[in-house]
Sequence to fold (414 residues):
Amino acid sequence: MTKFQVFTALTTLTALMAFANQLLFRLRGSLGMAVAGAGISLAAFAVGRIWPAVTNHTAALFAGIDYSNTVFHGMLCFLLFAGAMHIDLRAIYRWKITVALLATVGVFLSTVIVAFAALLFCKLAGLDIPIPWLLVFGALISPTDPVAVLGLLRELKAPKDLETQIGAESLLNDGTALALFSVFLAMALQNHSVTTWGVLKLFSLQVLGGLTLGVVLGVVGHFLLKLVSDPPTSVVMTLAYALGGYTLGDSLSMSGALVAAAMGLVVGYGRHSSMDEATRAQLTAFWAMFDELLNMLLYMMMGMALLALPLSPAYIAFAVSAIACALVGRVISVMLPMSIVARARPLALGTIQALVWGGVRGGVSLAMALALPLTTYKPYLVTGTWAVVMFSVLVQAPTMGHVLRRYGLIGART
Fold:
């Protein structure tokens, strides 16, 4: 099959699963696709036990997808730009210290803790996965994705400050995690030793350079949008911003992800002054729908990618341990920075617990896992990512209301 035919099959399958979800379960779009992708993978595995030829043919079909280029140079820039468009920059400023600590120190702590917790498990289980690859896993599993939980927080009428902290942290920690992911992946592929200086040098170039370039391009884009008042033109211009900013940052060895996110923040913040009400409404609706569509495709692609992986006991054991490692990393990486914040300003009871449990993994982690090059260690990292994301969207997100009620952040259910 040609690439176009494979894309057609994937899109059609996504549409069918979305249709079936709305008829039978009525789960939110991306959550429904997560369940559908998992179901298809498990069903294919069961069928393969009976008719191996069927699974082999299906695996060969989807193994031909170039996940790295499709995700990193096709979908990721739009995901990050869309997420940034919907964040209130003024609200971020109010919680700037909290968000900055969680999105930088918190992500780094989570990456290291997850990596060394996974290393301990590997030693006990007799798995030989080098520490650079476990650091890659720690980086790709550390960013949070609020898609599955922010809608629920609004439905539950959770405190606006909590919603802002979860959403803003998610946006900024995506860029930080992607920068760490790039650094550790380069070291793992080149067999370089992991040095503090090497990490700081590459990290500074990617993060500081990416943020600076993104802000500058975002300001330019904001003033260009003020010159037009046509909704389709504004949509096309913002699509070009996301693509062009990401590509330029990537070509300059900066974090294209942070360039796209910073541009989205600036353009989103200035949309009230750069465009009229009709244009603003249509542009906001377009990016909200586009964001949901991309997440649906990502979850389905993850399900298809699993078809090309053999489900060995070692992969399954690593996947189960990955859930525990991710939870431990999240708890420590939230508690330590927030203990610093609590000294400067009081926090509502249950804020730390809500931030820990609201750290749902999703699209960005899937994107990084799918973009990994083919190596001996990729199956471990992909299955581990899938397990953590499934736990997030099927356990953490649906029980978020119980956590908020437990600590009095929302009223009791009537």
Q: What stands out?
A: The chain is about 80% helix and 0% strand. The chain has a mean pLDDT of 82. The chain has one domain: 66-406.
